[in-house]
From TrEMBL:
Entry's family note: Belongs to the bacterial solute-binding protein 2 family.
Main location: other
Protein name: ABC transporter substrate-binding protein
Subcellular location: Cell envelope
UniProt keyword annotations, A-Z: Signal
Xref: InterPro entries: Peripla_BP_I, SBP_2_dom
Entry superkingdom: Bacteria
Native organism: Microbacterium fluvii
SUPFAM superfamilies reported for this sequence: Periplasmic binding protein-like I (SSF53822)
Sequence intervals crossing the membrane: none
Domain Periplasmic binding protein positions: 21-278
Gene3D superfamilies reported for this sequence: 3.40.50.2300
Amino acid sequence: SSTGDDGASGDGGSGDVITVGFAQTGSESGWRSANTESMKEAFSADNGFDLKFNAADNKQEAQIAAVRSFINQGVDAIVIAPITVDGWDDVLKEAQDAGIPVVLEDRTVSASEDLYASWVGLDFEQEGKTAGEWVKENFDGKGANLVILEGTTGSSAALDRATGFAEATEGTDINVLDSQTGDFTRDGGKKVMEGYLQKYGDDIDVLFAHNDDMGLGALDAIEAAGLTPGKDIQIVTIDAVHDGMQALADGKFNFIVECNPLLGEKAADLVKAVLAGETVEKKTIVPDQSFTQEQAIEALPTRPY
Ligand code: GZL
């Protein structure tokens, strides 16, 4: 008799489809689009998955609601890219009580690590430190004035990058004029930079933006103010997405620290391993690199995102 697929929900066993609910942060930046693409590619039907995808428009309540709906649908596993560190304990407990394992990708949470199976992401503190070391190397001893565009308030990416940057620039004579959030978006970066330019004008020597997109938004404001980005105001950002690398190659940015968005394959491996009852590492950090203008020109043609 035929042993056709009985459509049972995946238990990670051979051949069964694994149903996964993925609660993505939103679609706020070029990095996020690259990350979403990587996740959809990895959690494809060809790889044995049935992916239920939700992008929460950069709002935590929507992201928590998406996780709750995955629990009600009885998915086999849930993946979350948690927008902020706090506020996850309850819904993670509900998933645990429903016997649905959770894997985190990208940002981290403050909830106890007993409440999720594993996390795969980046070393945000190191990214901030690498950006800070570049600023220290190029501006310490010159009484330089610096402004910061912070990422989403309360996100581990913004919190840890700020920590790393402060550590690397401690003891320098670099003067931080201001530091506000642009919420990781181009529009946010542009608006906050417009405010900085009104307030500090050409006293600003350096801009540190927690991601390329806010830096790209700031370019519009800098040029609208008649200043030359990359010269009048030097710019260091984090991500190294295509448009950021193009700005660097064009001399409008001066240094970029990469934040690798290609986390899908690792996340999918973790989900399969957890469902197969294997023990997995609690944390997996994916390596980053950094780029000067020359390196960006060299790397651009073969960059996967
Ligand atoms: C970092 C990621 C950040 C990116 C931003 O892993 O969470 O969120 O740096 C994105 O571009 O919006």
